[in-house]
Amino acid sequence: MLVVGDVVTDVVARYDEPLAAGTDTAARIRILPGGAGSNVACWAARTGRVDVRVLARVGADQASWHEAALRRAGVRPLLVRDEEAPTGTVVALVDGRVGAERTFLTDSGAVVRLSPADWSPRLLDGVAHLHLSGYLFFAETSRRTARLAMAAARERGVAVSVDPASTGFVAGWGVDRFLAAVAGVDVLFPNADEAVLLAGLPDPEAAAAALSRRYGLVAVTSGAAGALVARAGASVARVPAPRVRPVDTTGAGDAFTGGFLAARLTGASVAEAAEAGCRAGAEAVTTVGGRPGPPGRVPVPGP
Length: 303
Prior knowledge:
- Helices cover 32% and strands 25% of the residues.
- The protein is built from nine helices and 13 strands.
- It has helices at 36-45, 63-72, 140-156, 167-173, 175-181, 192-199, 204-211, 252-265, 270-284, and strands at residues 2-4, 8-15, 28-34, 53-59, 76-82, 88-95, 101-107, 129-133, 159-163, 187-188, 217-221, 227-231, 234-239.
- Strand 8, helix 3 (140-156) and strand 9 form a beta-alpha-beta unit.
């Protein structure tokens, strides 16, 4: 499996009191490796049965740190070092008062400088699936690279999936533009808000059904409510999420995607893959940051 996407540095700030404008608010702050695409790769590699690689562009100053983190997670890093732009940075504000919900401040940095010169069809050698982070589509240079990768995958008969990544960025660029850019993908992984935005329908299930008429499979995540999968205009699986006590929802959707894809690549049905994705998402919200915690860690059950 090849993931083309984003490797960023996450600054995760968790707080339990209202943000105090103009002064201090106590918080617990950690600096961690992250990025939607690389998070997906790490969760897919968590199974230990899938060969996972990541192509991304990072600032030269932090490249070695990110490469080491990916290798520790069992992912093969294919990182392009950018001597001019810094590694992308995301500040995640995690509100402990509302279920550890997060708000992102995003500086894409080198992420969107991934260029056609960084791509080669040879990167698909031995690859059964290509996954693209939606963040690539929101800038001209990285969008051209994503389109090249998609075209090369189609020529080789390699399945392609896309995570829309951000309602804010999709809305800013244009829903119709985004839908056209990802035309022909085999699996789309929106969350409920993204599905509603992309389909122009108020109900996530109806939105999933509508989107699945344009794409092979649509797997929609709904946080603690679990996930549903639609194909050819109809719902084919609905899976509840395990009940856990969340500490940080950063990367939960990425975990679902990684778990889902790893399960499918090892022969699971759509329903089984959705269950694997929900288990990964539940584990993700019980650890700080968007990557898997230490192997064997047991999530704390929710009330």
